[in-house]
Amino acid sequence: MSFKAKLGGALLAAALSTTAFHGAFAADDTIKIGVLHSLSGTMAISETTLKDAMLMLVEEQNKKGGVLGKKLEAVVVDPASDWPLFAEKARQLISQDKVAAVFGCWTSSSRKSVLPVFEELNSILFYPVQYEGEESSRNIFYTGAAPNQQAIPAVDYLASTEGVERWVLAGTDYVYPQTTNKILKAYLMSKGVKEEDIMVNYTPFGHSDWQTIVSDIKKFGSAGKKTAVVSTINGDANVPFYKELGNQGIKAEDIPVVAFSVGEEELAGLDTTPLVGHLAAWNYFQSVDAPVNAEFIKTWHAYTKNDKRVTNDPMEAAYIGFNAWVKAVEAAGTTDTDAVLDSIIGVAVPNLSGGTSTVMPNHHITKPVLIGEIQADGQFEVVQETAAVVGDEWSDYLPDSKDLISDWRKPMECGNFNVATGKCGGKGS
Amino acid sequence: MLIRFFTLVFLVLAFTATSFAQGADPKSLFDQLADANFNAAEKLVADIAATGDPRVVPALEAFASGDLYFRKADKAVFVGKEQGSELALTDPVTAEAAGEVAKGAVTKIRVNNNLRRAIRAALGGLTLMSPDRSARLSAADAILRSPSAEALELVEAALAQETDAEVKARMEEARAVSLLSSDRSIDEKRAAIETIAGLGAGGLGVLNSVAGTIDPSLKPDLDKAIASIQNAQQLWNLAQNVWYGMSLGSVLLLAAIGLAITFGVMGIINMAHGEMVMLGAYSTFMVQQVIRDNAPGLFDWSLAIALPVAFLVTGAVGFVIERGVIRFLYGRPLETLLATWGVSLILQQAIRTIFGPTNQEVGNPSWMSGSFPLGGMTITYNRMWIIVFSLTIFFALLFVMKKTAYGLNMRAVTQNRRMASSMGIRTPWVDALTFALGSGIAGIAGVALSQIDNVSPNLGQSYIIDSFMVVVFGGVGNLWGTLVGALSLGILNKFLEPSVGAVLGKILVLVLIILFIQKRPRGLFALKGRAVEA
Fold first, then answer.
1. What are the distances in angstroms from CA A233 to CA A170, A183, A236, A371, B94?
2. Torsion angle of the four alpha carbons A345, A349, A355, A359, in this order, in degrees rounded to the nearest 10
3. In this complex, which of A3, A208, A274 lies closest to B452 when CB atoms are compared?
4. What is the ipTM of this complex?
5. What is the pLDDT of residues A270-302, one digit of tens each?
6. Which of A309, A262, A242 is nearest to A150 (CA)?
7. B171: closest CA among B182, B187, B160?
8. Upper half-sphere CA count for residue A140 (Cβ side, 13 Å)
9. Reduced to 3 states, what is the DSSP secondary structure of residue B150?
10. Cβ B247–A209 below 8 Å, yes or no?
């Protein structure tokens, strides 16, 4: 019986270790911000890095004297890759820890889970990951790429530079790839691509046996037209996918793959020699040649005490979001949500590719789109860079959303204004 | 023969003459690359190739792999080889050493896919007459992959000179694909179509690409050739599906075989089984790290070295789990399930804390990379070796169970514990060793799975459900059932996948298993006799 108790204790300890660890009690001269990233479970692979990046940004800001003369304090919680738990943890951060703003989430499912909490409790979330669009909330800032800041320029690049006429849209079966592929398909067809020249394929999360799909892609590519794969394959499934491509001898010169979820971090677990020339579209690459980026990488290596740690696009988005918030708080002179929401629109901060990013009235930001080719050292070589693009929350290529715009400035204050009917509340939230 | 020889000499002479007439010096062409954008660089590559100077070949190869640099001071272009933190520069044409410079003093000349394609085609033309047989073969391949009418004369010239049968056949094919887009006569094209039809799936792209532009009188020939390739492909597709199914089945078998012992034979619902697989994969990673640091020459042997290491590490962990947790819970399956699930979470988080949450790079030894064609199918080496490996493990385990004294003890204990005990067998000891064996085998599976999947703390989770599925479907307590179960589920999956997609395919397989278990609750090969009731 005593063993049972011990075992119970051990299990409890294990359960606790995977949930939360709080910062110490805050004194009045600190401002607390929440960091809501999974540190355990399937998404820990991507999100842990962002937690580290946030802690680094907070530390750097404190070295510069903090915000409004107060020190910043990060409250880190672990929602454990569990979507409902994200909402619980967000509520805890806002109501119990009284944080001024939250930086967090990775998957769209987690963002959708916390959205009502932020709206109900009137707090601010900075969301640093590329996503499918079709959403605009008064309380959320989307510092990652919207589809027009990533997917569409990538497709344009392939069509114009590589002369691609046949498209495989391959993705993991969940909301981001499904919506992105819907937008891409509508976009391609508006450019005159025929339906039979588009192949859409979905696979489950963590799919590891790519033999059939890769050989299907090979077959699809033998129709005499230049073929490319647009990949929205997520997370862990990428490594076996690229391994199978390499092993079946599909070279980037024959069928290039452009990926929206593969960055430096994902390539770290892979021998990239057979993948040289495959592409990715982001708003930032570690290899970007800009003084501000070199400085950021140096700080990152010093902070993590590991000069092999790579930087990636969501880290840049977190960097932009954090700095925009700091600037908005300083302009407003308070961390009060409504005041910050007012002052943040129009705030321009430097991004890591050497330009500036501005927070737009639709709560998205401007940033350039970079197309990079994978190199043998696991880094990307930029082959094309656009001017800064404004994130478009409601896609112009979907019939449901093409008439919608979002503008959170007074007096409109509407996330889904329908320009055709002239009314707020066209669709969704 | 003599005439042919003269034509050849003439062709080569004409070729070099025209290029020299253009007054192009390869060195100056290379230097122009420093300022060129991608489009201009593509033209320059063609110009460099047109000089016909064989000395440019290594520099073009370096260009394709991104080893071409220009010096910031004077924009002179060099081939750079990394030497520590410095670059050793060599002249692109003469290959003379040009000293070593810091990396900051030079800029890499960027290359994209179009440029790589252009370089590949240029190299194909330049190395067609190389004295090195494999260079000629890959040159013919390069032309085969990017056919162009310009390459036609070069190929024909090289063909006239070629003596090696295999290279010659490849060149014939390269000639055929190049001829199709040229302005040669209808008859020659007809013959070319026939040659390409023999190429199988690889020829389909070429034939389809000219389908819109070809002379109408050749259309029937073309359609016939495409149809014949497609017909042949259909049969091969069937074979390919069976092969993919076996390959998936072998992965399932690997993942499940350890569980077939701990769950199948001992009856322990071991939720930490997947984590044993993961520990095996991390052992492989550790072994490779040590080899990379200390003896890079041994890298091709890393998997062989990792096998015993993984077996011992996971076996030891399994032993500790059995002694520390499971032995207190025999006969209480629900509590075992919860306890082992807790153990699995602890192991996962421990690995995450030690190694970090990101994927670790486990390299493929050279014999595990690439593929070879077999008729109309492509067989990848890693999948092939994994099939061989999983069958070897299976039969080795079968041997241990059926033919050794330890296997006898194990079966005796699981079939009738009290009887075995009164015969003098130390049953707790046998329990611990059996669990350790099952865990160790899961660890070995991890070594193999590290070659095809991510090595991350989540590795085990993706296999645990599949493993239970295979063991339950095959029949609990029967190793042969696990083999047949794994292979049939693999093949079923791969036949469903092309028609219904990967997501629905997986769901259908699960539904079918549930229905099957309703009909035969004990799986494919049910154990009979008293052991069942125990």
1. 7, 16, 9, 17, 46
2. -20
3. A208
4. 0.81
5. 778 888 889 999 999 999 989 999 999 999 999
6. A262
7. B160
8. 29
9. coil
10. yes
